Amino acid sequence: MNILEQIAERTKERIQKKKMIFSLAEQRKAAEENSRLAPSFAEALRQSELSFICEVKKASPSKGVIAEEFPYLDIAAEYEQAGAAAISCLTEPYWFQGRDRYLREIASQVGIPVLRKDFTVDEYMIYEAKEMGAAAVLLICGILDDGQLKAYGQLTQELGMAALVEAHSEREVERALRAKAQVIGVNNRDLRTFQVDVGNSIRLRKMVPKEIPFVSESGIRTSQDMRVLYENGTDAVLIGETLMRAPDKKAMLRELRGKIG
Ligand SMILES: O=P(O)(O)OC[C@@H](O)[C@@H](O)c1c[nH]c2ccccc12
């Protein structure tokens, strides 16, 4: 099993345990009772020439612990003040050291949309995301079949959220398009090998119609990376590690943005 499959399996177990404590029916009810409409994720990505989705992430399978100190609320506030279009918050606990409560607290504190970054493998997680105040969930093509992609995308929309559908290859972009993804992200990191290639987004950008916001994810470090992505029609970038390691996140965002947008 590659790492992506391992995480997906572990996530299924995690959700089974949660369901025993709080059933799917109860979770659905809790989601439906949260009538607060989160700000629109897709709209937020259309607000500027090149939008930033800034990630709150303590650790990752490829890098281990990235931020020993992890004042997640301060980090989220700093991202918002620096002009982030949206925040991505990890909730996966074992490889990324995420927590549901990080997302819950961040979403209640900031005015910009928050993406629940997790390995969605069950509709239960979509109800949870809604209940927690997320504006969007991640659907990874590599761990979902076509039926799930479609059904989870629909449920997400019914609950007033958006799905960021993540692809890594031509075939997966085709699948995302077929599933009527509202927002498509291309991961520059191969979650099977951890190899990073920003060229992956550039290659796959051409397959996605202009009306669908296109997000380039992972491994973005320099204003040079940003320029190349921008020139090739990227609408938004999703940046984690580079920002998490920067002592002054506002300055880092300014530097990355350079002369763009
Ligand atoms: O820290 P980076 O290299 O800037 O990457 C951020 C984000 O793209 C990455 O965390 C990510 C992309 N797809 C994922 C799926 C699950 C968990 C995490 C991810």
From TrEMBL:
GO terms for molecular function: indole-3-glycerol-phosphate synthase activity; phosphoribosylanthranilate isomerase activity. PROSITE patterns: IGPS. Keywords: Amino-acid biosynthesis, Aromatic amino acid biosynthesis, Decarboxylase, Lyase, Tryptophan biosynthesis. Residues 4-256 form the Indole-3-glycerol phosphate synthase domain. It comes from the Bacteria. Pathway: Amino-acid biosynthesis; L-tryptophan biosynthesis; L-tryptophan from chorismate: step 4/5. It is an enzyme of class 4 (lyase). Its EC number is 4.1.1.48. One of its GO terms (biological process) is L-tryptophan biosynthetic process. It catalyses: 1-(2-carboxyphenylamino)-1-deoxy-D-ribulose 5-phosphate + H(+) = (1S,2R)-1-C-(indol-3-yl)glycerol 3-phosphate + CO2 + H2O. PANTHER family: INDOLE-3-GLYCEROL-PHOSPHATE SYNTHASE (PTHR22854:SF2), TRYPTOPHAN BIOSYNTHESIS PROTEIN (PTHR22854). Belongs to the TrpC family. HAMAP family: IGPS_B. This is Indole-3-glycerol phosphate synthase. The lineage of its organism: Bacteria, Bacillati, Bacillota, Clostridia, Lachnospirales. The gene is trpC.
